[in-house]
Amino acid sequence: MCYNQLAENASQIGAELLGLRKQLGLPRSAAASLLGVDPQTIFRWEKGEREPGADAYLKAKRAYEAELAKRGIGQVAENSPPFDVGDAPEARFPFAQVMRTPAVRARLAAFRTEIVDMGASEDGEERLVAKLRDRQTINDFVGGRDEDRYSEREIIRVIDNYARILKDLSKELGMP
């Protein structure tokens, strides 16, 4: 969305910047450092209390998107259009496409519920889900190979394993 379209509503600008920051799993202080502003400024932008101005908005958006692309998650936003693998859940597709399949999205939504039930904070929940949208996390779970193509079943297995590990850790640490 271009700045002029968003400028009519500071809360829309804030929501867009907040969404990008959360997708990265960045704390407000790290985002402020990345952008060269005070953490309180980030807070005000994201809450819609203050409009960043065109230059600051573009700088923030570009910095966040560059970081997302560097991490291999730039095209894996929750609201991106679905990708259908048809009757081939074992077929291998580029990471960003497989992460948009209805089955993977459903499993991520279930994972979100599981970690909330374990008592994770909203920030913790966002970081864990963002971690699962990171190609490097998936590579680590599939045997350390650096792949560009994955199957739907493979990604769902990774999410299942990640959820199991978190549940085991929470039990070990005496968490609910």
Task: Provide a short characterization of the protein structure.
With 176 residues, this protein is mostly helical. It has helices at 3-6, 10-24, 28-35, 39-47, 54-70, 95-98, 102-117, 122-132, 135-141, 152-172; strands at 92-94, 149-151. The chain has two domains: 3-70, lambda repressor-like DNA-binding domains (434 Repressor (Amino-terminal Domain)); 92-172, no CATH class.
Describe the structure.
By secondary structure, the protein is mostly helical. The protein folds into 2 domains: 3-70, Orthogonal Bundle (434 Repressor (Amino-terminal Domain)); 92-172, no CATH class. It has helices at residues 3-6, 10-24, 28-35, 39-47, 54-70, 95-98, 102-117, 122-132, 135-141, 152-172; strands at 92-94, 149-151. The chain has a two-stranded antiparallel sheet. The longest helix has 21 residues, at 152-172.
Using the alpha-carbon principal axes, give the shape.
globular
Which strand order spans the largest sheet, edge to edge or round the barrel? 1-2
Gap between N and C termini, in Å? 41 Å
Share of residues in strands? under 5%
- The run of helices and strands is HHHHHEHHHHEH
Structural class: mainly alpha
Rg result:
18 Å
Largest sheet, strands/sense/barrel = 2 strands, antiparallel
Number of domains: 2
- Give the total of beta strands: 2
The low-confidence runs, each spanning 5 or more residues with pLDDT under 50, are 1-7
Q: Percent of residues in helical segments?
A: 55-70%
SS field, number of helical segments = 10
Mean pLDDT: 76
